[in-house]
Amino acid sequence: MKTTLAGTTLAAVGGLLIAALAPPAAAQAGTAAHVPCAGPHGGAAGLVAAIRAANRRGGGVIELTPGCTYRLTAPDNSQPMIGGNGLPVVTSRITIEGNCATISRSRTSKAPFRIVEVAGPKGDLTLRDLTLTGGAAPFGGGIFNDEGAVTLDHSLVTRNTGQMGGGGIASGIGPDHPNDIGPIGTLTLDHSDVTDNSALPTGGGGGILNRAGTLSAYQSRVSGNHAGNGGGIASGPGNGGVAGNSILKLKYTQVNDNTAVNAQGGPGAGGIANGGSAALFATEVDGNRAPGGLGGGIVNHGKMTIDNSRVVGNSAPTDATGHQGGGGGILNADLGTPGSPIPDSGVLTISNSQISRNSASGNGGGIFNNLPGQLPAALTLDHSRVTGNAADTGGGIFNFGGPVSLKHTVVRDNRPDNCRPAGSVPRCVG
C-alpha cells in the first residue's frame, strides 16, 4: 500500500511503514523565488511580482511562506467576457509551492475577480500544497484554464463562485474562443479537493466545468458544490454535442454531496453531467441531489463507462415547485433526434459496480434510461448490482424504450418494483 501526504511518500513494506521524503520540486527545477508573507517584496504584491518575473523568464518555481495567507484586494488585470484576475495571467510553465499557504480574494474587495487564469498554448500552472478561495468571476471563480494546462497536487479549491459555470474551476474552451473544437486544455487533480464552490442556477459545473477539455482526477474529491446543472462536475463539448469533444477520467475519486439546484423537470446531474467521453474507475458518486430533476447522481448524454465503482445514496426528490425527480442514481439519455443524430450520445456501460440506495420521487430510483422523443439510449450492465433503490415506478430501472442488456447482473430488492415498464428490461423480473 502506498499513499502520499504533502510530498512524503509512505510505503507499507512487510508490514512496516517506511517514509521517504521526495525531493522538493524547487530542488528539481533549480532555485525557487521565495515570496515572504509580508514586507516590501512579500504578501500579495510580492506574489504578483513573482509571477510576472516568471512569465518574463519563460517559467519558474515560486515558493510561498508556510501557512501564510496572501490576500488579493483588487484585480491585476481584466478581459471582456472573462472578467478580472487577482494574479497575472500565467503564460509560461510555473510551479507554485504552497507549503500549506492560502491565496484568497480579500473580503474587503469591492470588485469581483477570480484568483488566476492560465492562457494556452504555453500557460502551464502546477499548484502544490495550496488553497485557493474567495474568487468570483463570470467563468471559473477560482481558476480559469483557457486552453492551457493546470495541475493541482495536494491542493484545495474552495468557496469560489463562477456565475456562468465552473464555480471552482473552468477548464478547456472559454467564452472568448467559442468556435474552437476540443479537446483543448488539460486539468489534472492529484490528491486534491474541489469543495463548496457554486455557479448560478443557470450555470453548469458548480465544482468543475470541463468545456471541450480533458479532466483527469486521481484520489481526489469533488464535494459540496452547487450549480444549475452538474453540481459537482459538468463535462462536455460546450456546443450541444454537435462537434468537438471532452474527456473525463476519474480514478479512485469521490464525487459526493453536490447539488443541481434548478432542474425543473429536466436533466439535473447533482454529481456529474457528461456530454463527451467519460471513464470512472474505482470511483464513488454518493449523496448527490437533483431536486425536481433527472439524474440525482449522474446524467450521461455522451459515452460513459463505470467500472468497479459505486453510485450510492443519490436522490432526485420533488422540488419546491412540484416538479418530480427521476433517475435517482443515473439518467442515461441520447439527446439526438431521428433527423439530427449525435454521435456517441447516450451510451452507458456499467461493469463490476453497485447502483444502490438511490431514490426518485418519479420514475427510476436506480437508473432512468432513455427520454421520450429522443433516439434510444443504450444501457449495458455487466457483473453489477442494482439493489435497494426506490421510486414511484421502476425502483431499480425505468426504461423508456432504449436497448438494455443485463449480463451476470442482479436487479432486486428495489421498491416498489425492480424494472418498469414490464418487459422493457430483458431478464429483469418484478
Largest sheet: 23 strands, parallel
Mean pLDDT: 90
Kindly estimate the percentage of residues that lie in beta strands according to DSSP: 35-45%
| Regions with little confidence, pLDDT below 50 for 5+ residues | 1-29
List the quaternary state of the chains: single chain
Please state the structural category: mainly beta
Distance between the termini: 43 Å
Count of discrete alpha- or pi-helical segments spanning 4 or more residues = 2
Explain this structure to me?
It is a single chain. This protein is mainly β. Helix content is 5%, strand content 43%. It has two helices and 45 strands. The chain has a 23-stranded parallel β-sheet that branches. Strands 10-13-17-20-24-28-31-35-39-42-45 form an eleven-stranded parallel β-sheet, with no helix packed on it. The chain is elongated. Residues 1-29 have low confidence and may be disordered.
Q: In brief, what are we looking at here?
A:
With 430 residues, the chain is mainly beta.
Relevant terms:
11-stranded parallel sheet, elongated, 430 residues, mainly beta, 5% helix
Question: Which SSEs are present, and which pair or pack?
Answer:
Layout (H helix, E strand, L loop, with lengths): L1 E4 L2 E6 L2 E6 L3 H5 L3 E3 L7 H15 L1 E6 L4 E4 L4 E3 L3 E3 L7 E13 L10 E4 L4 E10 L2 E4 L3 E4 L2 E5 L2 E3 L2 E5 L3 E4 L13 E5 L2 E3 L12 E4 L2 E5 L2 E3 L2 E2 L5 E4 L10 E5 L2 E3 L2 E2 L11 E3 L2 E5 L2 E3 L11 E3 L2 E5 L2 E3 L2 E2 L13 E3 L14 E5 L2 E3 L2 E2 L6 E3 L8 E5 L2 E3 L9 E3 L4 E4 L2 E3 L6 E2 L10
